[in-house]
User: What shape does this take?
Amino acid sequence: MENAKIEWYRTPVDKAVLKACTQKSNLKAFRKVGSFLLGWLVTAGLSVYFFLHQLWIPMVIACYVHSTFLFFFSMAAGVHELSHGTLFKTKWLNEFFYGLFCWMTWNNPVHFRASHALHHQLTTYQGKDKEVIQGPVKAKLNLGNLVQWFTFDAQLFGQWVGLAVAHAFGRADADYFGWNPLFEKTDPRRKAMVAWARFLLISHLVLLGVFISFQLWVLIYLVTFGTFFATWYGKFCGAMQHTGLGENVPDWRLVCHTFTKGPLTKWLYWNMNYHIEHHMYAAVPCYHAEELHRALAYDLPPTQTTLWSGMRLLFQIKARQKTDPSYVYVPELAGKRG
Assistant: This one.
């Protein structure tokens, strides 16, 4: 694949500060991963308890909360962070949990790591970055998408499960991002990607058979398909990465959004709300992202405070694009502020 080198602007940061920010910690990583696995067990356990006691309304509520939470295990947050290899100091621990979180959410660790590395190199460059293709805000924030995000995300199901099936049957060029192709024919990662897809598909089918045999219908939802329901919270966070901004600009301050507050969102989102900072210094673990933000803040554009204020900005951009379809939001850089 043709991949021209782009010279990105990075805000200068003190070497000692950057060294501290890039330090990995198994303890902090276990705290993060452990809190997520505990949350999964609690929401799944409550769902099963209500199912066994035929408490249907509490069960539906618990399942919905479970799915809303589970989506943050995926490439929306957890898989994304683990793909960078920055969370654990011990490499095999990072790879183990990367694989586990991918399995739980129908993600492919081989595919996503390679695809996401290209997204970092080519962020929002037209025709080059296939993960993020800029366009009118209405293309992402429309009634059809919102209905799916709050209920069953059929589009996401088709993309992730469909890709797993295609890869499992040997169609290694299949790609919902549209890389052309992601791996060349001689690249050994093609076989690894296909092998993972076969493991993913077979293991979920085996569990599906077990759950059906024991009539544990709720586990079909929780374990097999829970990722594809109630994706709204994670999708809103994802919309606040690059939506409404420009393209073909070698400055992450102009093609990424950052928002700085909201403890629940920051925990669920693995601190990816500091998105400009993440693109500038992707080797910084999520648990040091806020520290990095403070070091770079002098050079960043004004940031949104919360996810919800950021979403309000996106809807304002959407409203303006109705009268001016070519409009994109251009953040005011620090050096240009009065």
DSSP finds 15 helices and no strands in the chain. The chain has a mean pLDDT of 96. The chain has one domain: 24-336.
